[in-house]
Amino acid sequence: MTNKREDRPVFTSVSHDPTDTRHHGSISMPIYQSSLFAFESYEQFDEAFSDLFGHHVYSRGNNPTVEYLENKLAELEGGEAARCFGSGMAAITASILSMVRHGDHIVCVSQVYGPTKEFLGSYLQRFGVETTFVDGSLPEAWRGAIRPNTKLFYLESPTTMMFELQDIAACAALAKSIGARTIIDGTWATPCFQKPLALGADLVVHSLTKYISGHSDCVGGVAIGSKSLISSLSKSEYMLFGGIMAPQIAALMTRGLRTLPLRMQRHEVSGRIVAEHLEGLSFVRKVNYPGLASHPQHELALNQMSGFSSLFSIESDCPTHMLKEWANQLRYFKIGVSWGGFESLVTVNPLGSGSIARIYVGQEDPADLIDDMNSAWQAVEQHQEQYDII
């Protein structure tokens, strides 16, 4: 792992807690399976209602188990506060809506996650909010898209399918110069490998469903930033939309968070091994992975990230049906959406006259995954030869 900072604080922050006598010395944070919290006096009740997020009143607002996870995530990301949601999209949409009003304009990277793009490009138009999508890898594209009413830059670095980067510090500085805010989806790198808040971003959102959960058994999201921004978001979009995280889910997320730094070390090593191997295969035209020296933004990646995860894509001149047949032949890669768990995954889509496969390298031995990929392609070639003879 190519960290520019010491690993010890990262490992310690997710692993260590002072003993909490309220929980009888319990090592694990208890699951507060309660919808509400009672008070011994009306004075206490009134005090709690004067600061709902500083007390526990009702679990739609503040649950102890969820709050524990939020504090851990804020610490890991280097933010002052965090708010957890029932899904990544709940965190994304609430964060965006907390920063724009009717008549505002947003600039967003064009390769952003599909549902986010639909929300920005279509749904928000109902409320008089317009979005311009730009090539996020070009600093001049961001500047050229600015309007007098631009209030938000939305980044996703690296992007979901093509794994292009944006210069986070440059984008954030440009946004600040015009009085706009910056939100970035940092799910790919996790807080272990990228610190957007330190680079000037105002809010970082994550799909906790992915690496932070790490077990493919729960769904969640988080927004992390300053106390003032999270407080504003919490009092309006969080409370009014009700996209809360349940305490059981928070407990599962906390379990995953305990091993996140260790798992990300493994993902980085395995992801690079598999990506480097794929660069040499005959049916692969290009590997889109920021951790490779061949990636056109590799230097930027080294500058703003301290490591690389294990999700990337390959481009091929093969027709889509042929790459799908390769996916069918794979033994260790399941065909499925999402990523971040223990199991390797693959999905295939058309790309121009060729095709593209998004590959997620899980916790399996990379040597087994490489053998699997080689064998699967040999099977496809043999089948193709038989078809050509017929």
Quick rundown:
With 390 residues, this protein is of the alpha/beta class.
Key phrases:
390 residues, alpha/beta, 5-stranded mixed β-sheet, 12 strands, 40% helix, disordered N terminus
How would you sum up this structure, described in words?
The chain is of the alpha/beta class and 390 residues long. It has helices at 8-15, 42-50, 64-77, 88-97, 114-121, 139-145, 168-177, 190-193, 227-241, 247-258, 260-278, 298-304, 320-329, 366-389; strands at residues 81-85, 105-109, 130-134, 150-156, 181-185, 203-207, 221-225, 286-288, 311-316, 333-335, 344-351, 354-360. The chain is built from 14 helices and twelve strands. The strands form two sheets. The protein has a seven-stranded mixed sheet with strand order 1-7-6-5-4-2-3, sandwiched between helices. Strands 8-9-12-11-10 form a five-stranded mixed sheet, covered by helices on one side. Helix 3 runs parallel beside helix 10, helix 11 packs parallel to helix 14 and helix 13 crosses helix 14.
Strand content: 15-25%
Strand order of the largest sheet: 1-7-6-5-4-2-3
First CA to last CA: what distance?
50 Å
Uncertain segments = 1-7
Roughly how much helix do the residues carry, as a percent range? 40-55%
Q: How much is the average pLDDT? A: 94
Shape: globular
Count of individual beta strands: 12
- The helix tally amounts to 14
Determine the structural class based on helices, strands and strand pairing: alpha/beta
For the largest beta-sheet, the strand count, sense and barrel status come to:
7 strands, mixed
What is the succession of H and E elements? HHHEHEHEHEHEHEEHHHEHEHEEEH
Radius of gyration: 22 Å
Oligomerization status of the protein chains: single chain
